[in-house]
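W.,

You were right to be curious about this one. When I first looked at the sequence I had no strong expectations either way, so I just let the prediction run and decided to look at it fresh. Below is the sequence, 130 residues in total, followed by the output.
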Amino acid sequence: MGKTLLKYLRSIMSVVLGYFVIVVCTVVGFKPLGGIVHLNAPLRIQAAGTLVAIISGLLGGMTAALLAARYPVRHAAAVLIFLVLDTAVVFSRGSPDPVWFDLSAAVTLMLATVCGGLLYRVLTHRHRLA
């Protein structure tokens, strides 16, 4: 029973730490851009914000995949649980931007997170599906 418990704890912690990496990367990455990037921001700021979201998602997904050691894409995808909750909080607070803008930012981060798990799987040749 001890090994099974450790396996589950490792899976849970990989997902939590993957989300933590995303939070840290987005906070650090968006700070020089002035915080939250809005629709009326200059195009270069929007592009930089998109890059921050993509890099943050990739790093978070790869972190979850690396720490899980098994089923890298599945663990990276599990980080989406936290990202969906985070997105729900953002929508519940309201935003000066249109819903499509906030939703596209959230989806970009989520896709990048799953791609981080896929990238880890390809780089490490761990080809277990999902």
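Here's what jumped out at me. Residues 2-30 form the longest helix (29 residues). And, maybe more interesting for your project: Residues 9-124 form one domain.

Coffee later to discuss?

I.
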